[in-house]
Amino acid sequence: MATICGRRSAFIIPTTRGGLQLWSELIGKGGLDLSIGRGALAGVLPPDQALSRIGSYAEVEGINVAVFSDQLVSAVDAPILVERDGVEIYLSSTEIILSKVYGFDLLFYKKEMMTRISSCAEVGIILTELWDYLSACEKCDDDWMVRSMQTQRHVQFRRTAARIRAQYIRSSLLHMVAIEGDPWRPQYNDKLEVLARIHVAGGA
């Protein structure tokens, strides 16, 4: 199973019992060259490392990878804000890079069904499939092992996290320039004002 239809293929797998079983079977049959995710599974690489390795396979046609897209929830891994029916969430960019930069077909595993999206497909189609994949994960109840991580996809979570980081940096700078007459203080005033605005914009 080193190649599938002579193409590069990326299996988009959920972190569920069924998904992990499929992943294990693909590995057992020699059908995977690498796996991408952010969990604790042995041998799974974060997106930056995996994409760097794939980039070194420029001349290799038959590459198959697994992507645990439901684990890619951080601001680094999921930077694309998408809205549907009044709901906004951030989706991963890894699948788009695999498809549009490295020529992978995407095979979305949803409820024991597989949907193939050609590397020629438009980005909007890929994002729609990603949303549908996550919606299918939502219906897995307690079987979905990374359900609690999904709050990181929400706009309010990102805003709150940014506000906390800004407040931490602002507090650190204030501590550094707390001494009366500190000659470095003027250099920090502009930065403190920017951080204060971020804090206010995010909500007190």
Give a structural overview.
The protein is of the alpha/beta class and 204 residues long. It folds into 2 domains: 8-153, no CATH class; 155-202. It is 41% helix and 18% strand. The strands form 2 sheets. Strands 3-2-4-1-7-8 form a 6-stranded mixed beta sheet. A two-stranded antiparallel ribbon has the order 5-6. Helix 5 (155-176) packs antiparallel against helix 6. It is globular, with a radius of gyration of 21 Å. The chain starts with 7 loop residues before the first strand and ends with a helix. Mean pLDDT is 85; it is low at 1-6.
Topology readout:
Layout: E1 8-12, H1 17-28, E2 34-36, E3 44-45, H2 47-55, E4 64-67, E5 80-84, E6 87-91, H3 94-100, E7 104-110, E8 113-117, H4 123-138, H5 155-176, H6 185-202
Parallel strand pairs: 1-4, 1-7, 2-3, 2-4
Antiparallel strand pairs: 5-6, 7-8
Low-confidence stretches: 1-6
Percent range for helical residues? Answer: 40-55%
The assigned structural class equals alpha/beta
Described by strand count, sense and barrel closure, the largest sheet is: 6 strands, mixed
In short:
The chain contains 6 helices and 8 strands, in the order βαββαβββαββααα. It is of the alpha/beta class and 204 residues long.
Output the keywords.
two-stranded antiparallel sheet, 6 helices, alpha/beta, 8 strands
